[in-house]
Specification:
By secondary structure, this protein is an alpha+beta fold. The protein has 18 helices and 22 strands. It has three domains: 100 residues, Rossmann fold; 70 residues, ATP-grasp fold, A domain (Dna Ligase, domain 1, 2-Layer Sandwich), CATH 3.30.1490.20; 241 residues, ATP-grasp fold, B domain (D-amino Acid Aminotransferase, Chain A, domain 1), CATH 3.30.470.20. Helix 1 links the parallel strand 1 and strand 2. Helix 4 packs antiparallel against helix 5, helix 7 packs across helix 8 and helix 12 packs antiparallel against helix 13. It is globular and about 80 Å long.
């Protein structure tokens, strides 16, 4: 078994991996950039090291710095989490070359699936249906026009080297192709260091359904059923659930078998996900993610399987703990991504200091968060603050439970997408499982900045209570105290809010192995 691990990531995924590792008796080492010095993942690790400034290229994306910490801390393995370097084959190669265990698939698998055009070729050869399109990168805007006309409009131009909605443009007419090609290529180069772009037919109202996979070094591959990920903004997921409210038993079996064929075609080991588009009773391969997914908790709740534990066991050379027929599917789980964005203002990123954090509780509720009070939320990293997950024996109760949990979740000091998520939980089409990737555009009222009447009423009540309190305070006799009229408790609270206590935080005294004073 692996006895020590460096988690090469930050936020909620780093905290999730650290917690899972510690339960297995694995010594954990965290890394952090200077703004993340007091982040929860830093505090929960057995050791933590600063690896640089806020800029990701000088910290979380610096392979040399990560390997330097791994050597200094004398770990056995490196877990990449998701995002950053998780799907970089060259990182997996560097980890192995340095003598560490990479907790993930092989570098050759990552390379094969990281190139979306090569992935399409391999899937077609394995008998997995793919969306009609090109299987090689386009050389120019004119090539893109010819390919688009051959595939048939509308089409989508997509980055060959990455995903997550970056380097992706939907085009409806031939005269839009060249400009879209240039924009997609430029964005892909900035995001992935590779401006290659290819063309796929754009399916107008598909559902986005993915299959969770696991493989080991002994040739075993299983799937852990599907997740519905259709509610998205800018091709990035907002709400996920398992199982899909759409699939029949036969469709679930067929999709799972197709995903297993895809994994076997690239000798897959570890955790991975095959994403499909479902339309008109058919499903098509979209891409393969060679890592743990953000939405993995919903799979854990409906199967009872700890996916991080499985990752460590497979990385240590063990066989999968269960066979396909032994994996259960029970109840229903939902996940809402809590992001620092303004959903009623075009999802513009939001910044601020978290001055309030109240997490809901009760049966069937899970909070995977990477934030704490006093944390500054900037623009350096992904806006994901945490994930709220609910489980129940059936979907209607899971939705009601999520609605209640979202109402109880309080995050102050920074705008979040929580108000939008609350609206979605009440929306009739969502309640009935009538979903597609066009869900938000087809429900513009959900992102309308003008408040719905219940929200207006709540604000009016709050305003009235505040005015009553102000009048009462003005009428009360004033009491003089030291510290400018503040009680001792209030003075301590102000000091904490202003960040004066940060220097006394345990993480502030942790070591930076990259500085000369060691």
């Amino acid at each position: 078994m692996i006895e020590s691990v460096l988690v090469a990531n930050r936020g909620e995924i780093a905290l999730r991996v650290i917690r899972g590792a510690r339960e297995m008796g694995i010594r954990t080492v965290a890394v952090f950039s200077e703004p993340d010095r007091t982040s929860p993942h830093v505090l929960h690790a057995d050791e933590a090291y600063c690896i640089g400034p806020a800029r990701a290229s000088e910290s979380y994306l610096s392979v040399d710095r990560l390997l330097a910490v791994a050597r200094r801390a004398q770990v056995r393995a490196i877990h990449p989490g998701y995002g950053f370097l998780a799907e970089r084959g060259d990182f997996a190669e560097a980890v192995a070359a340095a003598g560490f265990v990479f907790v993930g698939p092989s570098a050759s698998t990552i390379h094969a699936m990281g190139d979306k055009t090569e992935a399409r070729q391999r899937m077609a050869a394995a008998g997995v249906a793919i969306v009609p399109g090109t299987d090689t990168p386009l050389g120019s805007g004119r090539d893109a026009i010819r390919a688009a006309k051959s595939v048939g409009f509308p089409v989508v131009l997509k980055a060959a080297a990455g995903g997550g909605g970056k380097g992706m443009r939907v085009v409806h007419r031939a005269d839009e192709v060249e400009r879209a090609f240039a924009t997609a290529s430029r964005e892909a180069d900035a995001a992935f260091g590779d401006g290659s772009v290819y063309v796929e037919r754009f399916l107008e109202r598909p559902r986005h359904i993915e299959i969770q996979l696991f493989g080991d070094a002994h040739g075993n591959v299983v799937h852990l059923f599907e997740r519905e990920c259709s509610i998205q903004r800018r091709h990035q997921k907002l709400v996920e659930e398992a199982p899909s409210p759409l699939l029949t038993v036969d469709e679930r079996r067929a999709m799972g078998e197709a995903a297993v064929r895809a994994a076997r075609a690239v000798d897959y080991t570890g955790a991975g996900t095959v994403e499909f588009l479902y339309s008109g009773g058919e499903f098509f391969f979209l891409e393969m993610n060679t890592r743990l997914q953000v939405e993995h908790p919903v799979t854990e709740l409906v199967t009872g399987i700890d996916l991080v534990e499985w990752q460590f066991r497979v990385a240590a050379g063990e066989a999968l703990p269960m066979r396909q027929e032994e994996i259960p599917l029970r109840g229903h789980a939902l996940e809402c991504r809590i992001t620092s964005e303004s959903p009623f203002d075009g999802f513009l990123p939001a910044t601020g200091v978290v001055d309030e954090l109240e997490v809901p509780g009760g049966p069937g509720i899970r909070w995977d968060g990477g934030i704490a009070r006093g944390m500054e939320i900037g623009l350096h990293y992904d806006p994901l603050l945490g994930k709220l997950i609910t489980w129940a024996p059936d979907r209607p109760l899971a939705v009601r439970r999520m609605k209640r949990a979202l109402e109880e979740l309080k995050i102050g000091g920074v705008a979040t997408g929580v108000p939008l998520l609350r609206r979605i939980m009440d929306e009739p089409d969502f309640r009935k499982g009538r979903l597609s990737t066009a869900y938000l555009p087809e429900h513009p009222e959900l992102t309308d900045g003008r408040l719905a009447k219940p929200e207006q009423d709540a604000l009016l009540v709050a305003a009235a209570l505040l005015e009553h309190r102000r009048r009462r305070d003005r009428a009360a006799p004033r009491i003089r105290r030291g510290g400018g009229g503040l009680s001792a408790w209030q003075q301590r609270a102000r000091a904490h809010r202003d960040g004066n206590a940060a220097a006394d935080h345990p993480a502030a005294r942790r070591t930076d192995p990259l500085r000369s004073n060691g």
